[in-house]
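Severity: low
Component: inverse-folding endpoint
Summary: output formatting inconsistent between runs
Steps to reproduce: submit the following structure tokens with default settings.
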């Protein structure tokens, strides 16, 4: 519908109306032979009705309606994937990169505004306004959604990869559910990443993203215990990891890094591979991970990456070294809204024997309303610290 109408808001409205009609009619009349074609045909009729009503306002609009009505539905897609095509279409270069990603997460990946706000460390109203402004700009500037030609795809690729990566991130730590992992979102992100890899096999960052998703999702079976509670990486039963995925991800990242064109997704995949290589938590090469985070920070400066580097430094050099980095980051207005920062600080404070400070940091994280699984983990840590004896001071 986006390709047919060229107007994103109209396409959304008509597609929703067609799906509502399907919910009403199919149970009564039976499933059509081609359900997808049925939905598109109904949505197209709704769009034509809307455009005909609008065409009464000017001769120019009447001409546009006649041209659109005569056109046959466009069957173009990217690598045979309509959703992949819409990813590229929404990441239009006329939009600011941050706006492209926000719009794509909402329209194509279907994430709710609250989840997008959490992923981008923004407020919900700010995200909602960003989406409204993006749609308004596309309408007012006459930006029509079209699948870009192969030569136009590189300019949009970074935003497309970011949208797929954030979709996986949401699935790996979902908002608005008690589940530790949303397999549907993780698998959809992997499907899209594989589609991109099929389309652009020589793009190292595409390969890096596929490897990253495989290496991270390969640990997912051990992220929850039998009662569904979150299990931290250091405490996971590694025999439950999906070795087939880990082996595939490791093979991909080794091959792509050998091409000596490193990028952020490749480096994140290399970090994930370090974890996959460790038979036990104690075997983890934290110095190598800290070095990889330093290189990642050079390529993609970000306080979130610096926070993750701090955790690696804490394991490699001691909790006080990592805590010094996180204390500096805690003064950032951006990361002040990120629960994981305060959770990380709390863990390092506890390792330093500062139990009351750790409890305060955990309460700060709780006030930021983290996802359900993490909230349960925090309350458990607070209870454990409250019951722990005060550390004795050596004389």
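Observed output (run 2 of 3):
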């Amino acid at each position: 519908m986006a390709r047919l109408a060229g107007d994103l808001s109209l396409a959304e409205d008509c597609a929703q109306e067609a799906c509502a009609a399907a919910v009403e009619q199919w149970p009564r009349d039976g499933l059509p032979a081609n359900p997808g074609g049925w939905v598109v045909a109904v949505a197209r009729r709704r769009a034509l009705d809307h455009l005909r009503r609008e065409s009464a306002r000017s001769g120019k609009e009447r001409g546009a309606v006649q041209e659109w009505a005569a056109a046959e539905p466009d069957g173009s897609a990217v690598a045979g994937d309509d959703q992949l095509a819409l990813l590229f279409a929404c990441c239009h270069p006329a939009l600011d990169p941050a706006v492209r990603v926000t719009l794509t997460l909402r329209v194509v990946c279907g994430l709710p505004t609250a989840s997008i706000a959490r992923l981008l460390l923004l407020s919900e109203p700010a995200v909602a306004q960003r989406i409204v402004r993006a749609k308004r700009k596309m309408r007012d500037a006459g930006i029509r959604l079209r699948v870009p030609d192969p030569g136009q795809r590189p300019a949009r690729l970074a935003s497309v990869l970011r949208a797929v990566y954030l979709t996986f991130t949401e699935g790996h730590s979902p908002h608005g559910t008690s589940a530790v992992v949303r397999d549907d979102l993780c698998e959809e992100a992997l499907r899209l990443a594989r589609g991109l890899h099929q389309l652009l096999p020589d793009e190292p960052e595409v390969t890096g993203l596929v490897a990253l998703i495989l290496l991270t999702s390969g640990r997912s079976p051990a992220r929850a215990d039998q009662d569904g509670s979150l299990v931290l990486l250091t405490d996971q039963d590694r025999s439950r990891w999906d070795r087939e995925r880990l082996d595939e991800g490791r093979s991909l990242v080794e091959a792509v890094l050998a091409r000596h064109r490193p990028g952020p997704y490749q480096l994140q995949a290399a970090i994930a591979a370090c974890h996959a290589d460790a038979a036990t938590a104690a075997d983890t090469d934290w110095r190598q991970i800290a070095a990889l985070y330093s290189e990642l920070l050079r390529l993609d400066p970000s306080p979130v990456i610096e926070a993750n580097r701090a955790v690696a430094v804490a394991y490699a050099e001691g909790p006080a070294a990592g805590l010094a980095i996180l204390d500096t980051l805690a003064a950032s207005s951006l990361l002040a809204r990120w629960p994981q920062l305060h959770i990380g600080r709390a863990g390092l404070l506890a390792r330093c024997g500062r139990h009351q400070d750790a409890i305060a940091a955990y309460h700060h994280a709780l006030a930021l309303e983290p996802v359900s699984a993490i909230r349960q983990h925090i309350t458990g840590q607070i209870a454990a610290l409250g019951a722990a004896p005060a550390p004795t001071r050596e004389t």
